[in-house]
C-alpha cells in the first residue's frame, strides 16, 4: 500500500516534470499571445512604447475597420473569393485524381510522386516561378495561348484575372497533399462492397455515388476543414506574386493586417483585424466539425 | 463491354498523365530558364531550350543570394525546430497518455485548443514578446516560439496510448527510472509517429516565410525563402534566368530528399489525414 502510494506520487511528479516545459511554451507563445492580441485590439498602440502606455480607445478599432476603412471589408471579400475558389477546385480535383489513381495500378506510384512534388517545394520559390510563367511578355502561359490563337492575357496584372491566377497556382501547390489524404480514405473502403455491387450490375457512376462518396464523407469533411482554414490565412503566394494588387484585387486580410501592423505600425487596429478573421475561422471550423460529427468521423479517428 | 472499359481506362490514364504534365511543367520550365541567357529569356517568340546551357547562372545566383549561408540557416532552423518539437511532443504526449494526475484533462484540452489558434492572431504579440526578450534578428527568435505545437502533442499522445502498460510496469518493477522508461522503451515504440512529426515539422520550417521575414533583417540569418524574396522585386526589371537559378537551387534539394524518402512522406500525410 505504501509502495503503491509512493509509486503514484512519483508518477504524478514525473508527469509534471515531463509536462512543465510544454506548459511554459504553450502559455508564453500561445495563450498569452492570444489574450494579449485580443486585449490590445482595444488600444491605439504602435509597439514603440510599452503596451502599458498604449491608449485605450474601446471599440474604436473595430468601428473604424468595419465602418470607415475602405479596404478592410474588401479584404475579407477577397479572402472569401480566394477561399471558395481554392477549396472547391482543390477538393474536387484532388478527389477525382484520387479516385482515378486508386483504380489505376499502372501509374499509381509514379503519378503520386509527380502530383505530390509541388507540396514539398518552398512556396516562395514556386511563387516566383509562377510569376514568371504568368509574365505578360516572356511568360510560358501566353506562349501556350498563342498556339491556340488566343490573345495574350495580363494574368497577375489585371484586376479580373489576378485572383483566379493566384488560385490556380495555389491549387497546383496543394493538390497532391489532399489527393493523398483522399487516397488514404479510399483505401479504407472495403473492396467487397464494389464486388457485390458489380454482381448486382451497378454502373461505375452509381458505385461512385452510392458507395464511394458516402464512405469517404468523413475524409472529405476533414479535407474541407483543413483546406478552408489554410485558405482563410493565405499570405505568402500573394505577397510574392501580386503584393495585393492590382488595385487591391488580391489584398487578402492577412496581407492587409501585415501591412497595417508592420508598415503603418498600427498594432491595435491590426489586432482587431486579426481578431475578426479569427472569429470567422472559428465559426467555419465549428460548423464543419459539427457536420463532421454527423458524418460519423468516429469510424475513422479510431 | 470489355472493349468499352478498355477505352475508358485509357482515357482516364490520358487525363491523369496530362495532369501530371501540368504539375511538373513549371519545374521543367524553371530548370530550362535557369540555364538561359538574358537574351533568350526576353526573346520573342519564346526560346524553349537554352542554346548553350549557362551554368554560370548558378554560380552567379549562389554568390548573389549568398546561397551557402541561406542553406545552412534553413537546415539549422528546420533541424533544431523538428528536434525540439519531436522531443517536447513525445514527452508530453507520453505523460498525457500514460500518467493519471490532477489537471491532466485540463492540460490536454489546453494543448488541443492551441491547435485552433491560427498563427496570424499571435503574430503581433509573439513579435512583441520576442522583441522584449531581445531576440529580434537571432536564431533564438527564429526558432524558440515554435518549439511546442498542439498538433505534435496530440499526435504523440495518440501514439503513446498504444504502448502496452504491462511493459511500463515491468520496467518499473525492475527499478527502471521514469526517464529511462521514456527514453528506452516508449521512444522506440512510437518511432513511426515521431518520424512523421519530424518530417512535417522540418517541411514546415523549410517553407516558412511570414515569421522569419518579420523577425530577420540581417543577411547572415536569412533562410532560403527570405533570401529569395530579398532579390525579388516585381516592380523593377528582373533577371529571370537568375531568379530561376535561385528557385532551382531552393527546389532541387527537397525534391531529391522527397524522391528518396517518398514512401515515408506518403505514409506521414496519410496518417495525418486519418488521425485528423
Radius of gyration of chain B: 24 Å
Please state the overall shape of chain B, judged from the principal axes of the Cα atoms. Answer: globular
Order of helices and strands of chain B: HHHHHHHHHHHHHHH
Largest sheet of chain A: 2 strands, antiparallel
Task: Describe the protein in words.
Helix content of chain A is about 75%, strand content about 0%. Chain A is an all-alpha fold and about 300 residues long. Chain A has a two-stranded antiparallel sheet. The two termini of chain A are about 35 Å apart. Chain B has helices spanning about 1-35, 40, 55-65, 65-100, 105-115, 120-130, 140-145, 150-160, 165-175, 180-190, 190-205, 210-215, 225-230, 240-260, 260-275. Chain B has 15 helices and no strands. Chain B has a domain at about 65-230: MetI-like fold (Orthogonal Bundle). The radius of gyration of chain B is 24 Å and the shape is globular. With about 280 residues, chain B is an all-alpha fold. Chain B starts with a helix and ends with a helix. The interface between A and B is large, with 101 and 98 residues.
